[in-house]
Amino acid sequence: MEAAPAPVKTTRPKPGERRVQVLQTLAAMLETPKGEKITTAALAARLDVSEAALYRHFASKAQMFEGLIEFIEQTIFGLINQISAQDQDGVSQARAIVLMLLGFAEKNPGMTRVLTGEALVGEHERLQERMNQLLDRIEASLRQVLRLAAAQGTLPETFDANSRANLLVSYVLGRWHRFAKSGFKRSPAEGAEPQVAALLR
Fold first, then answer.
1. Total count of domains within the chain
2. Domain region containing 184
3. Distances (CA, A) of 133 to 36, 61, 137
């Protein structure tokens, strides 16, 4: 007599895996060029789960966006720390940070809409506040390396690190916006090298 076939086991996601899947799917949905507002119903349908299942991992849609912002923060500031550790020259660090920010957007189009605040319109105001804080921290990092460059003598002592750091962040934001508005067709890093070099004189 033949043995009965073993029951097929459905593999349940490990703790934390479903949470990551939700964030990955949200980021992928943000990559649609038309940029429609994302609902939890559409997100649940894309994941083939119920909305109730989403709320087992995140208390609200705002919390899902916070998860994306945490990923952005950890990645960007991890890379800024790497740049600072690998290169002692202040001007080189500033250039590398700006180009990294443009490259990050190109590799993560959906995240670009979070960085520009476009995806956060109509969401909880604390999300935009957190993005503003992230931009302030980026500006502070650039201010620090520009002051280092002035102390090293690669920039004039009269160089205004505050206004130049602000200008660099404004440049990056403009590039991010253009990338998102082009439906992610125009590379944010296109022609950036000479422009960044001009901003660091």
1. 1
2. 61-200
3. 25, 20, 6
Task: Supply the CATH number for residue 135's domain.
Answer: 1.10.357.10
Q: Are 18 and 44 in contact (CB under 8 A)?
A: no
Q: What whole-number distance in Å separates Cα of residue 68 and Cα of residue 64?
A: 7
Examine residue 78 and state whether it is found in any structural domain, yes or no: yes
Is 52 inside a domain boundary?
no
pTM of the entire predicted model:
0.88
d(CA 180, CA 196): 20
**The amino acid at 103:** G
pLDDT in tens, 74-92: 999 999 999 999 999 999 9
* Alpha helices per DSSP H over the chain: 17-29, 40-47, 51-54, 61-86, 90-107, 109-115, 125-152, 161-181, 192-199
Instruction: Report if residue 30 sits inside a domain.
Output: no
d(CA 28, CA 43): 10
